[in-house]
């Protein structure tokens, strides 16, 4: 049996479409799971080699179920990311007209992307959340709801037809998906990489968040995601999910993580992996003094000073 990848199912999710763009998916058995949690648990128990799940979208921000799973529980690591442009179709049973639709469903992350369309076209429809967009389509097939927002490609699979296509409140809405596995050595740097960490502060003090961000700023590291999530330990208790430019094997990134390790209660390393948004040729030039060579030179100089050889 080939190694398997778990993904947020059922068949026909955007997640499945994004997963199939990864070359390595062609050599794996792809197994749909009913939730992000169950897909990630399949990795934790060893049932699946890796899981592919949505983590962020450009309209609403972080997909909180995924972030919370990565923040807590047995540690997992991100190995790859995929960006997918998303537009929705309104899927219905053949023959349904817009005026017949009283209930609509989709994944909660879909709602902010179709809100204006709903207001303009189905202002009185009741919204119910589904476990995924394809699951919403399945529920329409079962007769539980009148319509589902999902990928147009899901229609045939669930015996539905698209009543409307190309629904997206925001132009260029994208969702980011990640391939998550058990902790192991990250892939070698490509020159266009991203590092994800979760930071938990030691104590509550003025400028606490600035102290964390300062570790990145002084080393010229640009941040691509900063999302606070409750730790569950009471009101006002948050940890921070951070995506930073660079790879843990870059000196500036390693030094920033060391700085954070010294001042945080906990730093959870979630991986260094190739960026999906740009290629090596588009990576911005490093700020002066932050290249590996400059870090090595500075460390050598300190060593010489300690030896009295400057
Ligand atoms: O993959 C899906 O179809 C999902 O349900 C997750 C999702 C939700 C909203 C936009 C893109 C993906």
TrEMBL record:
Alphabetical keyword list: Amino-acid biosynthesis, Aromatic amino acid biosynthesis, Lyase, Phenylalanine biosynthesis
Coiled coil: none
EC number: 4.2.1.51
Swiss-Prot/TrEMBL catalytic activity: prephenate + H(+) = 3-phenylpyruvate + CO2 + H2O
Pfam families xrefs: ACT, PDT
Positions of the ACT domain: 197-274
Domain Prephenate dehydratase: 4-182
GO MF annotations, alphabetized: prephenate dehydratase activity
Domain of life: Bacteria
InterPro entries found in the cross-reference section: ACT-like_dom_sf (IPR045865), ACT_dom (IPR002912), Chor_mutase/pphenate_deHydtase (IPR008242), Preph_deHydtase (IPR001086), Preph_deHydtase_CS (IPR018528)
Residues carrying the site annotation Essential for prephenate dehydratase activity: 175
Claim: Lyase is one of the keywords in the record: yes
Listed pathway(s): Amino-acid biosynthesis; L-phenylalanine biosynthesis; phenylpyruvate from prephenate: step 1/1
GO biological process entries: L-phenylalanine biosynthetic process
GO cellular component: cytoplasm
Quaternary state and interactors: Homodimer.
PANTHER family: PREPHENATE DEHYDRATASE P PROTEIN (PTHR21022), PREPHENATE DEHYDRATASE-RELATED (PTHR21022:SF19)
UniProt name for this protein: Prephenate dehydratase
């Amino acid at each position: 049996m080939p190694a398997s990848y778990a993904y947020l199912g059922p068949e026909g999710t955007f997640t499945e479409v994004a997963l199939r763009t990864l070359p390595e998916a062609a050599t794996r058995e792809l197994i749909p799971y009913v939730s992000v949690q169950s897909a990630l648990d399949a990795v934790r128990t060893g049932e699946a080699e890796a899981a592919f799940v949505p983590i962020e979208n450009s309209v609403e921000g972080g997909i909180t179920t995924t972030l919370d799973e990565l923040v807590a529980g047995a540690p997992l690591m991100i190995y790859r990311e995929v960006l997918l442009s998303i537009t929705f179709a309104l899927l219905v049973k053949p023959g349904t007209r817009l005026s017949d639709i009283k209930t609509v469903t989709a994944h909660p992350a879909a709602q902010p992307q179709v809100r204006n369309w709903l207001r303009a076209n189905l202002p009185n429809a009741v919204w119910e959340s589904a476990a995924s967009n394809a699951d919403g389509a399945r529920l329409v097939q079962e007769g539980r709801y009148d319509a589902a927002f999902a990928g147009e490609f899901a229609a045939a699979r669930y015996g539905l037809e698209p009543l409307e296509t190309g629904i997206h409140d925001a132009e260029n809405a994208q969702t980011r998906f990640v391939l998550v596995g058990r902790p192991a050595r990250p892939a070698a740097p490509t020159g266009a990489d991203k590092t994800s960490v979760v930071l938990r502060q030691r104590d509550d003090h003025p400028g606490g968040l600035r102290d964390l961000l300062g570790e990145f700023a002084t080393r010229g590291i640009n941040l691509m995601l900063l999302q606070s999530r409750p730790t569950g330990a009471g009101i006002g208790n948050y940890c921070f999910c951070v995506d930073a430019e660079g790879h843990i094997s870059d000196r500036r990134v390693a030094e920033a993580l060391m700085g954070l390790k010294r001042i945080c209660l906990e730093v959870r390393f979630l991986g260094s992996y190739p960026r999906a948004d740009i290629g090596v040729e588009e990576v911005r030039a490093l700020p002066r003094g932050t290249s590996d060579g400059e870090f090595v030179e500075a460390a050598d100089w300190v060593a010489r000073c300690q030896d009295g050889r400057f």
